[in-house]
Write a structure and sequence with these properties.
- The complex is a heterodimer of chains A (about 70) and B (about 230).
- By secondary structure, chain A is mainly beta.
- Chain A starts with a strand and ends in a 6-residue tail after the last strand.
- The mean pLDDT of chain A is about 95.
- Chain B is of the alpha/beta class and about 230 residues long.
- An 8-stranded mixed sheet of chain B has the order 3-2-1-4-5-6-7-8, sandwiched between helices.
- In chain B, strand 7 and strand 8 form a beta hairpin.
- The radius of gyration of chain B is 16 Å and the shape is globular.
- Classes of the chains: A mainly beta (about 70), B alpha/beta (about 230).
- At the A-B interface, strand 4 of A face helix 2, strand 5, strand 6, helix 6 and helix 7 of B.
């Protein structure tokens, strides 16, 4: 299945902004972030197709995953 | 000092009626650092009648890179006092109330008495969530903004919304602890906050309710996301 991954803010550093990946059926968010060297606790917001998702959410063909780190400074 | 024509260049962006609404409004700015300083500056310049500034910190050298209220002459001064001095020199018609202390849940009713809108310019994720809760209990609109490095987030939370909780509910600290905050990021996010604040104060619809704006100044991308 094809999944689009969109990274935001500092997650783009040394990685990418947007990429399409071929993944096996049943891949969850956690399986996908591990090779990207992103830990679950580093993620503030995780969206699949614009809706809230969790690290164990399973992706489907055509999904877009968006990951945001916490931005909390003032 | 009454300066005729002070608001001449606000027209026709703001009508006389809008200007009057602003002069009769009170905004509390929680956090008077990078974001809060610029927010206070712009709200004073545009003619908001009363500002409540809340911050328990004093100015230090590392603030000079971005905090508009800081200068080499006022290091060591309370941030809210430095802000008051600058705001008084910009617009003496604005009533400035300084609170030398940190925002806490139980202080909410006292701090926000007579306030029409709250701007979140804090630097702590958990306190942002508390601030939203207090604003909702007091039926106050909240404009929130946050920054880290080249990046920022901004939105509006009206009573009953939980935008801040959804965005900032996880974790203690953001990536600003490693990326810092350069001069331009607070200025941009503060200006966006003030634009949303002004809309709310003059009775227009804000653009970022049930949403947040993701700002990337490295790529110059501004993207809106829905909060369901």
């Amino acid at each position: 299945m094809r999944v689009t991954i969109k990274l935001f803010a500092t997650f783009r550093d040394g990685r990418f902004k947007v990429e399409e990946r071929d993944l096996p059926e049943g891949t969850c968010v956690l399986d996908l972030i591990q090779p990207l060297n992103i830990k679950p606790e580093e993620i503030a917001i995780c969206l699949i197709n614009g809706k809230d998702a969790k690290e164990h959410s399973v992706l489907k063909d055509g999904d877009t995953l968006a990951l945001f780190p916490p931005v909390g400074g003032g | 000092m009454k300066l005729e024509g002070r608001y001449a260049r606000n027209k026709k962006t703001l009508s006389d009626e809008d200007q009057l609404k602003l002069s009769n409004s009170c905004v509390a700015i929680v956090g008077c650092g990078g974001l809060g300083g610029y927010i206070a500056e712009e709200l004073a310049r545009i003619g908001v009648g009363r500002l409540v500034l809340i911050d328990g910190d004093r100015l230090e050298v590392s603030n000079l890179n971005r905090q508009i209220m800081s200068s080499e002459l006022n290091i060591g001064q309370w941030k809210v006092e430095a802000a008051r001095d600058r705001l008084q020199s910009i617009n003496s018609e604005v009533q400035v109330e300084e609170i030398k202390g940190w925002f806490e849940e139980e202080k909410g009713p006292e701090l926000f008495r007579g306030v029409d809108l709250v701007c979140d310019a804090l630097d702590s994720l958990p306190t942002r969530v508390v601030l939203e809760r207090v604003c909702h209990q007091m039926k106050l609109p909240l404009v929130f903004a946050s920054i880290a490095g080249w990046f920022g987030q901004l939105g509006v939370s009206l009573p009953g919304d939980f935008s801040v909780l959804r965005l900032f509910g996880r974790g203690e600290q953001g990536v600003e602890s490693t990326w810092g905050n350069p001069a331009f990021t607070p200025a941009v996010l503060a200006s966006l906050s003030v634009a949303e604040s002004v809309k709310l104060l003059i009775g227009r619809m804000p653009s970022l309710r049930h949403a947040w704006l993701q700002v990337d100044l490295q790529t110059m991308e501004f993207e809106q996301f829905e909060i369901q």
